[in-house]
Amino acid sequence: MPRLCLPPLTALTCSGMATAGDPRPLPQQDKRRLIDWDRRFVWHPFTQHTLWNTVDPLVIVAANGDYVIDADGNRYLDGHSSLWCNIHGHRRAEIDRAIIEQVGKVAHSTQLGLASPPAIELAKRLVDVAPAGLTKVFYSDDGSTSLEVACKLAFAYWQHRGRPERRLFIALKEAYHGDTIGSVSLGGIDLIHRTYQPLLFQTLFAPSPYCYRCPLGRSPETCGLACADVVDTILEEHPGQVAAVAIEPLVQCAGGIITAPPGFLARIHNLCRKHGTLLIADEVATGFGRTGRMFAVQHEEVTPDLMCLSKGLTGGYLPLGATLATEEIYQAFLGPIDSGRTFYHGHTFTGNPLGCAAALASLNLFESEKTLERLKPRTACIASHLARLADNPHVGDIRQCGMIAGAELVRDKTTRESYPYGLQVGTQVCLHARRYGVILRPLADTIVILPPLAISLPNLEHLLLTIERCIDEIVPRIRNGLRPDSPGSDGLE
Ligand SMILES: *Cc1c(COP(=O)(O)O)cnc(C)c1O
After folding, report:
1. Sheet order of strands, 67-70 included
2. Domain boundary among 368, 391, 421
């Protein structure tokens, strides 16, 4: 039997204890069967199964508010918002009810040739909250498909405008736009994108605005946004050939919570206008309040030509994607039926009524709970803990944009040297956090702080203190060549 990596119940703090109303723990034989079947039948995303299969996975059977609950009845703070999508907490009565009401009407009807009330009302609401100028909503299934739609719209737009030579895309190194082939073509993370290179359409890459490890070797005080100048150069070198520039506004999340310096986004937007090309804003991770505004582009008063939404769109409840477009792009697709201008693209579940109903309920909560106004003490809480973490000997850099934050662990604070990937330092720290009732998932050695926007202040405090504690407990062990979880080492066994 491999050693269990689950925390013993006694190690959980009181915030992790079960409360009345939680589901009963699963009988042990049921849990064992699920884990056995998981190993035999499930292929997990972004997962090396030679590692996965050596430890028992946490089986999440329920959730409530800030917590997810495992098969043994242990509660864990959802420190990564169930992969960056939960907004108002789990089991929100308002969203639950909206979905149940919609199930009582129709669970699915198509957008191809038919219309449906939730999709209509949501489109209106999205246009109302989006930057002025985005007037049309094209639905799809998730973040990746919302990017596929944006790429195809940008590409076809120039054909319809009689400028077919505008067919190149520009993206940033360390960018992540999804895992389908089109969105991978815009991806700049070598580890996950390199393999597929021969399959991809041509994208020109500009440097990431990663100030801690500036690819241009500059310093943020004096660089004058030199990385944005590279975008200018690329556009100049390919006059009239670029269809669109794709960008994750303000934060390259999957790239490692890389926060762009102020003005970077506005500068890229200006360059797009100067060179007459389109701007695609991928707000899949940053949208819906994550950065402190409804959409990240609003911080720099940018209206992109195309804006991609998913993750938080349904409050993190159901898969749904949307690509917002300007009137000008929409108009370019109009014409007689034989004009070749029809956008021949759509998915079976495009505009699914359940997803749209959840999204409407989530937008209602933004209004009734004043979600954005209430972020201030939360972002301030994260900022003050990060300031402390900055002094931690193992933390090289801290980065924050609203309710998105990261602490990058380094082997050497002076040289900024990283740990070897094989050591999985970030992962070990995050696994350790489960002993204190917190679920986290790192990006390489950057510890990611991305809780539900509605997380309570005491829970947020616990989350942040746990991160500090886990770094202090685990990193020295790894540096000393010890197994992070050797028995008897920390009194938790
Ligand atoms: C998660 C993410 C995507 C992909 O969304 P999926 O729903 O996983 O396909 C695209 N862009 C960004 C910025 C993301 O964070």
Report:
1. 60-64, 67-70, 75-78, 438-439
2. 368
170: how many CB neighbours lie within 10 A of its CB?
Answer: 27
Q: What backbone torsions phi and psi does residue 340 show, to the nearest 5 degrees?
A: 75, 15
**Do residues 278 and 321 share a domain?**
yes
What is the reported pLDDT for 346?
Answer: 97
Ligand 1 centroid vs 160 CA: distance in angstroms? 28
Rounded average pLDDT over 94-121: 98
Q: From atom 7 of ligand 1, which residue's Cα is the shortest distance away?
A: 143
Which of 82, 174, 176, 320 is the best mutation target for the ligand 1 pocket, counting ligand atoms within 8 Å of the beta carbon and taking the most?
Answer: 176
Statement to judge: residues 333 and 218 lie in one domain: yes
Whole-angstrom distance, CA of residue 469 vs CA of residue 230: 41
Return d(Cα 198, Cα 176) in angstroms, integer.
18
- pLDDT for the residue 22: 82
- Rounded to whole angstroms, how far apart are CA atoms 68 and 203? 39
**Contact between 84 and 318 (Cβ < 8 Å):** no
Torsion angle of the four alpha carbons 322, 324, 325, 330, in this order, in degrees rounded to the nearest 10: 50
Ligand 1 centroid – CA 98 distance (Å): 25
Ligand 1: residues with CB < 6 A are 142-144, 147, 176-178, 248, 253-254, 282, 284-285, 310-311
Mean model confidence pLDDT for the chain: 94
pLDDT of residue 482: 81
Local structure of residue 21 (DSSP, 8 states): T
Ligand 1 atom nearest to CA at 141:
7
pLDDT (mean) for 136-162: 98
Print the domain residue range for 48: 28-87+372-479
Please tell me what DSSP assigns to residue 58: P
How much of the chain, in percent, has pLDDT values that exceed 90?
92
**Mean pLDDT comparison of 159-163, 478-482, 489-493, highest-scoring range:** 159-163
Cβ distance 71 to 96 under 8 Å?
A: no
Any domain includes 488: no
pLDDT at 23: 84
Residue 158 has pLDDT above 90, yes or no: yes
Going from the Cα of 17 to the center of ligand 1, the distance in angstroms, rounded, reads 33
Strand partners, 64: 67
Co-location of 66 and 103 in the same domain: no
Q: Which of 353, 368, 383 is the last residue of a domain?
A: 368
- Shared domain check, 378 and 280: no
